[in-house]
């Protein structure tokens, strides 16, 4: 990006921030906003950084640097976020978390704000109409129906989505044994617009379970869609035919809980009304996965869960 | 903030971004990250912007501006977000959306990352144990139990929260007729740490309905907690004693849908498995509130809804 381009951007920021101050002075009294505004008091909208040149007097230059400081709230926030609980999403991400009250399944809609290319993770057949309505409202182009695994508790919406949108392709792990247009495995990428999900193979609940990782512009993972591998303060059952507690433990610890502690974990299900957790939280508070591998295997053996209705 | 302070921050960003590139080169291939990395290829970690002075030769100065461009991904993203669907939350916000499967109520946990002061919006009595567990896990200090209005469909958790945490105060509108420690009205602030919610009086569903607005560091509204005033593609019923369709229409349009189109709207309820909407979306797609006031009043009169179980 040219410094001129940046200059234009800085001017826009300056105007926006000045507008922010105006609004602030009318109403907002919070410490955070006061802090932001105290950084902005000296912003001079008549100048922006791209005007800096060899001919700029030292005084103006220092004022321009002061302006740079003043207009850099978000750069500062970015640094503050380096130690935050979570990191911001990629700036071109459109994201929606959707829920099925029947099977307690989370479906995730992700899209590139610029290209409008969209994907649905773990759609539920009964809710395809709702999901397509939202896709249409947001003006998105759904290109993939992506599954984290072959679900025992609900029927995927992939097939119905493909019927309604012939250009939409279904995706699942090659190890799932399920039928799809595209099969993915460890290290693969699912690209939508200028965004992509990376595939981590995380079997243990089923043989074909995968986790999808979204990174921000700096390459740092920000969200992992974990399917049933790890749930909020829980994990997927391992007593089905393809279940393997030891394998689940190794994959969750080796691939998911080894992501940065700030990584948000968004599972395929929750039964407690929670919507998200983080690697840091599950490393501290997951009642099963904080145990040793041997203890974990014993816990999973002794769950004696009822079989799913569906 | 001093330019030296900024320099330190820039150096940290540079290191982080370089680390980002390293990770990126191992694994990530998405267009977005490629774009980010192409901006970063020329970053020189030995210099940062605060070293720029009257003695800096023009060539170095232009290289430093190039470095500034390269290390400013997030400032660029910030500018891109000016035209985005939604804006990032304040960087010091901890945020959780929680749900009650019985009354379809959303409870929101907000906290200041730095001070750990926290508030709960619309807690549900049956789920106080869950909410307190999360507050404890996140190491937060719950100072307020905040209600958007007096609910007909569930009992607030405020009382039980105050029993469990004697220092926690309950908050509701003075017009609600309900009992609380603190009564708020239009223009008031609910401060927690360095963050604050602003109160907008938005009656119509009940006389005491309020909307709470959270702004980011620039003073721009990013989230409005709308209670039952506006729901995702819907709105609260107006056939109870305190209901007034015309008043609801005027308040929703005059105070909520007049916020920036990027403002996320987070209601007290949803019955379709959706978690969030935006001002822009509801202005386009709300089946009731896109109508004229007269049409809206007629629609609300003819809903003939069953009375709530609770």
UniProtKB/TrEMBL annotation, chains A, B:
Keywords from UniProt, A to Z, are: Acetylation, Dioxygenase, Iron, Metal-binding, Mitochondrion, Oxidoreductase, Transit peptide
Reactions catalysed according to its record = S-sulfanylglutathione + O2 + H2O = sulfite + glutathione + 2 H(+)
Main localization of the protein described in the UniProt heading: mitochondrion
**Highest taxon of source:** Eukaryota
Gene Ontology terms for molecular function? metal ion binding; sulfur dioxygenase activity
What do the Gene Ontology cellular component annotations say?
Answer: mitochondrion
Keyword Ribonucleoprotein assigned: no
Query: InterPro entries annotated for this entry?
Result: Metallo-B-lactamas, Mito_Persulfide_Diox, POD-like_MBL-fold, RibonucZ/Hydroxyglut_hydro
Do the record's keywords include Mitochondrion? yes
Return the SUPFAM superfamilies for the record.
Metallo-hydrolase/oxidoreductase (SSF56281)
- Its top-level enzyme class, in one word, is oxidoreductase
Q: Which residues form the Metallo-beta-lactamase domain?
A: 104-269
User: So which cofactors does this thing need?
Assistant: Fe(2+)
Q: Which GO terms describe its biological process?
A: glutathione metabolic process; hydrogen sulfide metabolic process
Q: Any idea of its EC number?
A: 1.13.11.18
One of this protein's Pfam families, by short name?
Lactamase_B
**What is its subcellular localisation?**
Mitochondrion
Assembly and interactions? Homodimer. Monomer. Interacts with TST. May interact with RELA.
Name the protein family. Answer: Belongs to the metallo-beta-lactamase superfamily. Glyoxalase II family.
Family annotation (PANTHER family): PERSULFIDE DIOXYGENASE ETHE1 (PTHR43084), PERSULFIDE DIOXYGENASE ETHE1, MITOCHONDRIAL (PTHR43084:SF1)
Protein name per the record: Persulfide dioxygenase ETHE1, mitochondrial
Species the sequence originates in = Strongylocentrotus purpuratus (Purple sea urchin)
